[in-house]
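Records of this kind hold a single protein each, on a pair of labelled lines. Below, a sample record shows both lines together.
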Amino acid sequence: MTAGNKSIPTISVSYARNGNSTKSNALGMRTMQERAYERRGEQYLLIKSPPASGKSRALMFIALDKLQNQGLKQAIIVVPEKSIGSSFNNEPLSQYGFWTDWVVEPRWNLCNAPGSDNGGKVKAVGAFLESNDKVLVCTHATFRFAVEEYGVEAFDNRLIAVDEFHHVSANPDNKLGLHLGQFISRDSVHIVAMTGSYFRGDAEAVLAPQDEAKFDTVTYTYYEQLNGYEYLKQLDIGYYFYSDSYTDDILKVLDSSEKTIIHIPNVNSRESTKNKIKEVEHIIEELGEWQGTDSVTGFQLVKTSDGRVLRIADLVDDDSTKRDRVSNALKDPIHKNNRDHVDIIIALGMAKEGFDWIWCEHALTIGYRASLTEIVQIIGRATRDAPGKTRARFTNLIAEPDASKETVIEAVNDTLKAIAASLLMEQVLSPRFEFKSKSAASGPVEGFDYGDEGYDPEKCNVGFNHETGQMQIEIKGLFEPKSEEAARICREDLNEVIATFVQDKNTIERGLFDKEMVPEELTQVRMGKIIKEKYPELDTEDQEAVRQHAIAALNLTQQAKQTATKGTEGSNEPIANTALIDGVRKFVNVCELDIDLIDRINPFNEAYAILSKALSEDSLKQVAAVIAAKRVSIPYEEARALTERAVQFKKERGRLPDINSQDPWEKRMAEGVAALQRFSTQQKAAQGSGGGI
């Protein structure tokens, strides 16, 4: 921890270290791999599982079964970049109990082949399709060009396995997404898609809804993964603010005794000094006295003030010969388990997804990353389990908003995005929620622990399954999903709904800084609008069920965090691994838990409390002022949504909301009705005068 107001982690999560993640069955499969293998017969399979959970090997098991027992001709493994191709190198699976080994002929691992993606490698794909060999590995780019060259029909009766599936998009401009849509339409291949992210992209859906519905999903959560580790017990995530240049403040958050990956800002971002080489040099100078370069690895050797010699890998250098030597040294399998091989890695676009350095204890990212998916991937670099590594952290170092600079609005936007990322990561790292409507027929479910006092039929209960990492929570008045699709969304996609919600600029601005805002405007109106846009195929009741489940997941996590972290600020002592579960239980115990209560909680209260401590008072006021200046009267879409809620209110109460009510939510609904009436009057007047709006 560091001094001053820059040292407040927004999330601190602890885990039980029960070892389940690393235990193998008789076939040599870990928990996630076994779960995926059970679904090996599916034609379309989506595996959503964190970094380091063993997705590559899970695919090997599935692909070998499809080739041997399901009649497929060949398997084509598609990865986003060449470096990830090494994840699919030969593996002696039979040594661990499987019935055969994973073998890729050297000529068919095109990630190792020279040349461009749209050249000899495309011809190599054609040669492979004509051969009797079974497995090919290539990049997304090579595969795209090959499909354009040979057509989708050339790949019939084969397995297409897409690693890092979040790179795909349903946007017509995304060629890989377009090709996958064509494969699914033709329905003559098997597809296994894998991603370490918990939401499919930041703005664009990965697949069209009708295509996505064909996929069977295997989900292995971050909570299951980290809870089942042997060594890593605690993960801290925080955003920290600096003024002037980040290179002056970096040592306030960088501890040279921790194994660290530093991602410097993109040269086009406002955090960049526009000279990436100088930035790297400055970081090295801050760390100590340069001693030269290691002749074998190319690592920079730097002596610290306490006499230690740091080995620093520079992946920013524009000299490709030097950079490739450093990159190859980092990938050298001989040193994979050598903690002393390297101490700090400095990168710009490298060392993100698929980069496997198990010893990384700190992922330090300067400047906000526009993609939440990228943040999840970067955090994944620090969440590998390794002997002696009990604690890991992710730090996002962001420039404080400065009203004297032209970039103040951009700075405010970055601050809001950092908060959104923090809120989403809290959901990603939490146990999996299962919400049940509380009724007279409710009772305990086998496998769930209901705490020291057990299940109480008179109140709402919180059960926890220690094996699956699933939390079951009873809520009065909760809508249960009726359709299979709504049930799937509530089971699988709540984090994606929450990602859309917290990324909505108007939502997060009002939630943090509008003191007159009624929480239901966000929890009911704004979230309701997002659900309708995201899932238009659901009927009204199922849309409401999804809305309630998503808001319950977000707000209960926030309330649990508040309870769990109370009194622990500034402490280096790890919190109990059951803190989040205990926090939910405490909140439920002191409240009459119903959906109306949950809707009356502002989801951003806790985020504001943390932000007010992390930012200086002047900066906080500047952020509030920038946002207040943009505030307008009720817009048409919001007025219409408020009116829909008012109609529901009338059905329940027999009257319309009263604009003079003491209840702020009833008053806001009435204001929405009045605003919609004004819009309607204006429109009629405009039409009557021959104009329009």
Q: What stands out?
A: Residues 1-7 have pLDDT under 50 and may be disordered. The chain has four domains: 24-222, 229-399, 428-615, 633-692. The radius of gyration is 27 Å.
